[in-house]
Amino acid sequence: MAKSTGTIHVSLDTGTDTAYLRSLQSSYPLRLMAPSAQSSSGFGRRHRNVYILSFGGGLVGGDAVKLRVVVDPNTSLSLCTQGSTRVYKGKNGGESKDCMQSLDAIVNTGSLLCLLPDHISPFADARYKSTQMLALHVGASLVFLDWLGAGRSLNGEEWRFSSYESRVSIMHATSKSSKPAFKEILRDAWLLQHDHPNPIPPSEIASYAAALHPYTCVGTLILFGPRLTGLIEAAITLFENTISISHKGVKGFSEGIVWSLSKITEDHLELVDSVEDSSGDAAAAAVVGVVLRFSALEPRLARDFIRERLAGLEDVTGSANLFSKQL
Predict the structure, then answer these.
(1) This prediction's pTM
(2) Phi, psi at 285, each rounded to 5°
């Protein structure tokens, strides 16, 4: 059981037009690794990639990790992991303790933050809690991925963790000023919790498992901002042209996966210095983001779905093969 903190701050060297890490700090058991910049031209010069690692390859009950991220104007940052994050149970007085992770991020004008971890994999009786607070300035863009696997299926631990709680809050600036007010434009949460005391008997599955059957991987993918217009439009087009199937009102991308799409429009932003239409004609508000929720029979199908939705992201960041390992 350990408490650790980390800080990542990406800035732009205007002399060389290159992004650099102004701050990259972490404490045990958290470890942050940043490969050298992969491109010397275009957007790639302004992009950095950081891997989030932990000694032991996962979290133990009682661990608490806090990470703070700042992405300066006109830069981009990708946060990735090198594999699924395993969550182990930890005992204290006979009860499992929560593994906790928190992220606070500020994404400035013209910048892009890509949160692209591999899925969380909780072991039997484990407890996991995640909180992510993301503040976006006007003109900022975001890729947010949060997904969960059923656990060690081959070991008979499918949907046998005690509790999984994940919350994300996305705040957006209400003006272009240097010190704007922020308004929450999206709040998303997952809560899967066994109804009975720990531990779950080996002969049983968790009480929430029936609601998830037959799926073994669920998640949320959020695309937001002007730098992701192409990806957003592609997701909407695919969704609108996908034939509905009779499963709780969601749609099928391919055999083995179902998904839904919700739009984020300019109306959600409530910018105080936005220009209104002087013609008086009513028009649909422009779409500035989408929220995709998906369920898959196995993580491999979810990974394929994510890859398809993020096709073209390497062109946006200017970094070739950036996501080849983790996605």
Answers:
(1) 0.90
(2) -65, 145
